[in-house]
Amino acid sequence: MAKIRLFIDHPLAQGQAVPLGPDQAHYLSGVMRQSPGDEIAVFNGRDGEWLARIEQVGKRGGSLLAQAQTAPQMNPPDLWLIFAPIKKARTDFIVEKAAEMGASRILPVQTDHTNSERIRQDRLQAHAVEAAEQCGGTFVPEVGDLQPLSRLLDGWDGQRRILWADEALAGPAQTLAGLARGPWAILIGPEGGWSESERKRLSAHDFVTRVGLGPRILRADTAAVAALALWQAQLGDW
Amino acid sequence: MAKIRLFIDHPLAQGQAVPLGPDQAHYLSGVMRQSPGDEIAVFNGRDGEWLARIEQVGKRGGSLLAQAQTAPQMNPPDLWLIFAPIKKARTDFIVEKAAEMGASRILPVQTDHTNSERIRQDRLQAHAVEAAEQCGGTFVPEVGDLQPLSRLLDGWDGQRRILWADEALAGPAQTLAGLARGPWAILIGPEGGWSESERKRLSAHDFVTRVGLGPRILRADTAAVAALALWQAQLGDW
């Protein structure tokens, strides 16, 4: 984990030259005191992890040379996380944890009781990248733009099932035991919980499975991590 | 959740007068703008949740009168969380989440690679109280003082099994399926992972069960929430 790992949106292959943007060049030279000849780990979300040698690095930019693949590309299971943004720190946290725990896509939605009306998609995407850099992952989940839950459901492909965490349902979480593998999305509500019309609509869809997360009310960020853990252990790659 | 909930370390019963300390009095009058006659929810970790009417409230203190029990005392399963403190914010987070997820006791330990040498036990205990206030719980887990893991293990009662999260073991988390109910403790390592001697010792104890948390390396705080979720779903009260 001490090793420097950078996400770089550029093809990676044996002997591939990789340009560095100003931010990454500054991070490597200014912050991490790296110089030409030093080696770091890089990944692009598609080609696994590569050992790369720093060729040049300066204020305005620099370049790397990909040496050898150090880890194969590892993609998470086909699991999406749909959540209603909450306070900034906890929203950042949900995105970081979802990336760590192997969500393949992260979709912020507006619900009837959503506390926050807007998000900084670019900042959340950067959190997902940083989580992958920190945790040795080779995949970075895409963070979507904020959209109304109703619109998301209007265009929903029923082939993907939704695991609906409903705080009104006090356990048992074991309901996951019977569920079929395949594409899923976990749906976590806002601090304010679900509205009656949302409850009615979600209950009406046959691709939605309602699940409880125990007798204690969990904060939205806790519920997200807990549901991801249960899904990964039962239906995912744990 | 909008309702004001306060933890009060005082017996609660029908018609019981409950004194308010300066901090809680200030919170109620100064911050929450409550005045005599207003009603709040209180709990003491033993007698369930009570509706209490504010009798007097001022700068220096005040008093409540317990009206009626609004929720029975609900204790979590006999599950401890043992963890190595990390950066302040993430340590606070682990305590908050453990309280939310129903750990009955929280024990910070020093390991060979523990990043942090000291904790503020009183501050962490306050986080556990706040989590219970926020999440509708009636129980507050005790947060222990920082102690060396080796000393904790020296005095360990083998009747309580330890679920040892080892990042070196890449899945499957399903190993929990076969585990027996009863008193357990979840053991989460520091960012730096476990030392060889710690691995050797933990592997030697027959009350220790080693478990992996999937193919991606999880931060310590993520691992704590994930392990608590898996235990609660399999062996706890979810």
Descriptive report:
The structure is a homodimer of 238-residue chains. Chain A folds into two domains: 5-71, Beta Barrel (Ribosomal Protein L25, Chain P), CATH 2.40.240.20; 79-235, SPOUT methyltransferase, trefoil knot domain (Alpha/beta knot, 3-Layer(aba) Sandwich), CATH 3.40.1280. Chain A contains six helices and twelve strands. The first copy, chain A, has helices at residues 22-31, 88-100, 121-134, 149-154, 196-204, 220-235; strands spanning 5-7, 17-20, 39-43, 49-57, 62-71, 79-83, 105-110, 142-143, 147-148, 161-165, 184-188, 208-211. In chain A, the strands form two sheets. In chain A, strands 6, 7, 8, 9, 10, 11 and 12 form a seven-stranded parallel beta sheet that branches. In chain A, strands 1-3-4-5-2 form a five-stranded mixed beta sheet. In chain A, helix 2 crosses helix 3. The longest helix of chain A is centred in the last third of the chain and has 16 residues, at 220-235. Chain A is elongated and about 60 Å long. Chain A starts with a strand and ends with a helix. Chain A binds chain B through residues 1, 74, 76, 93, 97, 100-102, 134-137, 171-174, 176, 191-192, 212-219, 222, 225-230, 232-234, 236-238, and chain B through 1, 74, 76, 93, 97, 100-102, 134-137, 171-174, 176, 191-192, 212-219, 222, 225-230, 232-234, 236-238.
